[in-house]
Design brief:
Layout (H helix, E strand, L loop, with lengths): L1 H25 L7 H8 L4 E2 L5 E2 L3 H14 L20 H13 L5 H10 L9 H10 L26 E12 L5 E11 L5 E7 L4 H15 L4 E4 L8 H10 L2 E4 L9 H4 L4
Parallel strand pairs: 3-6, 6-7
Antiparallel strand pairs: 1-2, 3-4, 4-5
Helix pairs in contact: 1-3, 2-3, 5-6
Length: 272
């Protein structure tokens, strides 16, 4: 179970790295050079998949670009650290990271924090989760903080066709299947963000990853490869296979905020 969690985290981190270098891979960055792009993107801290801001160096992005060009998404997977053995106390860098994680996710437990710290290389895996538990208890970090204010929702539209596609599933009426039994139908649709053009849409008896990936394949064959794909966290849209597909064709996979259906209103509008 722990290994599966680690593998999933590694994939999320690999795709996070790809999203940062995608404009270079796709040739869409506006800067005078790749080096200039890397400097601009790393001017400020970047929020990682765990929600914690981190200040990267331009050379780090340059290295990821080279790795992707050599071996694709596999080369962006984090490497296992070579340092082994337990530590007697947590480093100042690790302590600072724990405070950042607890500030961002007040209700996260010590085991989850331990997984994140190991994944990001702040501690070796040999450090026990109990070490993190003791630190949280001794430093009174167990009390959850109040959640922050709601974000303003602003109008947004990509500048050109194919810059981003949005996809979602709409519930449709029950219809008889081949055996005469009534079943719920699902309309899976893909809409171009800029033009609002429906680049792919089909009715299915099942809303699953296989059906969406088949629809996406047909849409790409007919309309080209999008720079970004914007979807929600449903099982059809959040799975390792879709991440690998997008990574292999150079598409950045973006997931909408959890419980924020309005974020993908473009998809439902053409069918209202």
């Amino acid at each position: 179970m722990g290994q599966n969690n680690s593998t999933q985290m590694d994939r999320e981190l690999a795709y996070f790295r790809f999203a940062l270098i995608a404009p270079v891979i796709q040739g869409t960055f506006p800067d005078a050079s790749v080096a200039a792009y890397c400097r601009r993107v790393t001017e400020n801290p970047i929020v990682r998949p765990d929600g914690v801001p981190f200040k990267y160096k331009p050379g780090t992005l340059s290295k990821w670009i080279q790795l992707y060009q050599v071996g694709g998404m596999d080369e962006l997977m984090p490497r296992a650290r070579s340092d082994k053995g337990a530590v007697r106390r947590l480093s100042d860098e690790c302590i600072n990271e724990i405070h950042k994680i607890k500030e961002k996710f007040p209700k996260i437990d010590a085991v989850q924090i331990h997984i994140r710290l190991v994944q990001d290389g702040f501690i070796p895996a040999t450090v026990s989760p109990r070490t993190i538990q003791r630190f949280i208890k001794n430093n009174n970090l167990k009390n959850p903080a109040q959640s922050g204010p709601m974000k303003d929702r602003k109008a947004f539209e990509e500048e050109f066709f194919g810059a981003m596609w949005q996809a979602d599933t709409c519930y449709f009426p029950y219809v008889p299947d081949e055996n005469g039994k009534k079943q719920r139908t699902y309309l899976i649709a893909i809409v171009d963000d800029h033009s609002r053009m429906i680049v792919g849409a089909r009715l299915f008896f099942e809303d699953n990853a296989y059906n969406f990936q088949k629809l996406l394949k047909d849409a790409i064959a007919a309309r080209g490869i999008p720079n970004k794909l914007y979807v929600d966290h449903g099982p059809s849209y959040e799975n390792s296979q879709l991440s690998l597909i997008c990574g292999s064709v150079g598409t950045v996979l973006i997931h909408a905020p959890v419980r924020d259906g309005a974020a993908k209103a473009y998809v439902n509008t053409p069918f209202m």
